[in-house]
Automatic annotation (TrEMBL):
It comes from the Eukaryota. Residues 19-106 form the 2Fe-2S ferredoxin-type domain. InterPro entries: 2Fe-2S_ferredoxin-like_sf, 2Fe-2S_ferredoxin-type, 2Fe2S_fd_BS, Ald_Oxase/xanthine_DH-like, Beta-grasp_dom_sf. It holds the Pfam family Fer2. Keywords: 2Fe-2S, Iron, Iron-sulfur, Metal-binding. This is 2Fe-2S ferredoxin-type domain-containing protein. One of its GO terms (molecular function) is iron ion binding. Signal peptide: none annotated. PROSITE patterns: 2FE2S_FER_1, 2FE2S_FER_2. It comes from Perca fluviatilis (European perch).
Amino acid sequence: MDMYGTTADTETRSGCGSDDLIFFVNGKKIVEKNADPEMTLLTYLRRKLGLTGTKLGCAEGGCGACTVMLSRYQTHTQQLLHYAVNACLAPLCSLHLVAVTTVEGIGSV
């Protein structure tokens, strides 16, 4: 499986269950076995992964302090699409087979 999860067959071979949430953060594969359906991406990034570059500003999606990039492979068009989303509003459980790029994943000095 590549970092965009283009083959579901690989999921079965890797030992991941069908209820596992699989996604990528800054190129690192994350397998969350018991994802909290009420947790936002912002909370997960800051509390579980320790990535504090994505900030909580207004908690309503208006300020942009929590903006991250999501990359999703579209099988029907065979294209990789990139979206800017507000992590404070994005449910963690909506990220199955999605690549997330935070400010930490952009680069360093």
